[in-house]
Task: structure prediction
Amino acid sequence: MKRKNNQAYFYPKLKGKRNELGFTLDDMAKKLGISTDCYFRKEKGKTDFYLCEVRKILELFDCKYEEIFFIPDVNEKVNKNSFSER
Result:
């Protein structure tokens, strides 16, 4: 995802699903081949996920993109702007 003005994206669904499945930060980092600190920054939205990492997460969690990475506030703004009258 492209950021504007250093906007951070927090993924609470990702953390929730990770905890639900019993994975630690360290487990996720090892599965993605990155450091624990790097994974933590990505989950907190301070650093972007690479597409290959997103694919691995979705495969690991056996879920769809929208179930984990959907950002309602951003999508609401896009939808409102898309359908506004000009």
In short: DSSP finds six helices and no strands in the chain.
